[in-house]
Structures are given as C-alpha cells and as structure tokens.
C-alpha cells in the first residue's frame, strides 16, 4: 500500500505503529471536478492521495481562478492554514481527475500525537516540507522563466501532466494559455 510505504520512508515508526495509523484512515472516492475543500470551509481532515491529481486555487476579486499548487499520488493534502487555525479555508482544492483518497480526521491525528511523540516529529517534517515547497515556488516565480517552470513540472510529474488542462497549467505558470501553447510546441515530451 502506498500509504504504508510513505510512512515507512520516514524511519520513525515500527511496522505495528504504521498498521495502527493506517487503520485510522478511510477510503474516499472523489470524482473529477469535485472538491476536497471549498473556500470558507473548515478543514478538519488530511488526505493521502492514492490516485488522481488535485489543484489548489483561489478566486481573485475580479473572479479569476489562480491555481498555485498541484498534488499528485503519494502526496499528503489539506487546506493547511485552515487545518492549523480551525478557521475557514482561503482556498479550494479540486480533483482534476477521478481520484481515491485515504482520509484521517484531525481528532485521530491528535490521538496519534498523544500516544507517540514520533508523530510530533513526523508533523514537524511535513511542516518543513510544506515550507520548503512554498519557498521554492516563490523563488521559481521570481527567478525562472515560464518555459523553465513548465519544463520543471514536466520533469517532476511527467505521467500526470496530461491530466491538467491548459487553463489550469497556464494559471499555475502565471501566463496566458496562448503563451503556454507556444512553450508546449517548443518542449519535446
């Protein structure tokens, strides 16, 4: 199972601890176009993506959707700031393909934390990874050309790039769909 491998990768837990944690997750199918989180909703669960591609986006005051993040199989996913604060989400998280999630509620995570301090270390690592990803994204937008950002995405997730519409890719890259079309013609997959 992907989740077991994901947790084992951190070398923090015994096999029994991993099995106990995995038993707290429930499977949830998500249809293409459906939402894991809507703007304004509280987020009281974390998902592990077994199958499917998701995007995180917000809507500008002028009504434009701005995609700022994609999530792929093997990733953990939540509206992180809403999960931490207990306030409404500032983002939407939408399935770009049919998907399968493993879901764990916040109260179950709190129970793991109370039983085993290794889970505190795990959450620290996850928070650090989120920070590094965010910092990388900021630097990427400021430093790299749209062509370089597109090439980077292809190199990191080649098998899933075709599941993302041109509209969402262009928004993520911070360019028009027309500009993206020119870049795609220049890039050999």
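Q: What amino acid sequence fits the structure above?
A:
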């Amino acid at each position: 199972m992907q989740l077991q491998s994901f947790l084992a990768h951190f070398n923090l837990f015994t096999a029994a601890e991993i099995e106990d944690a995995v038993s707290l997750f429930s499977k949830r199918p998500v249809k293409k176009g459906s939402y894991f989180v809507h703007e304004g909703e509280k987020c009281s669960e974390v998902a592990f993506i077994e199958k499917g591609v998701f995007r995180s986006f917000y809507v500008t005051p002028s009504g434009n959707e701005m995609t700022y993040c994609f999530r792929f199989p093997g990733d953990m996913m939540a509206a992180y700031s809403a999960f931490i604060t207990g306030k409404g989400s500032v983002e939407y998280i939408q399935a770009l393909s049919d998907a399968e999630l493993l879901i764990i509620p916040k109260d179950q995570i709190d129970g793991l934390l109370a039983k085993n301090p290794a889970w505190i270390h795990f959450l620290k690592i996850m928070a650090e990874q989120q920070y590094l990803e965010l910092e990388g994204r900021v630097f990427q937008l400021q430093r790299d050309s749209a062509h370089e950002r597109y090439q980077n995405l292809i190199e990191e997730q080649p098998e899933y790039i075709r599941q993302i519409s041109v509209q969402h890719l262009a928004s993520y890259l911070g360019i028009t769909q027309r500009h993206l079309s020119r870049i795609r013609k220049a890039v050999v997959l």
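Q: And what stands out in the fold?
A: Residues 118-143 form the longest helix (26 residues).
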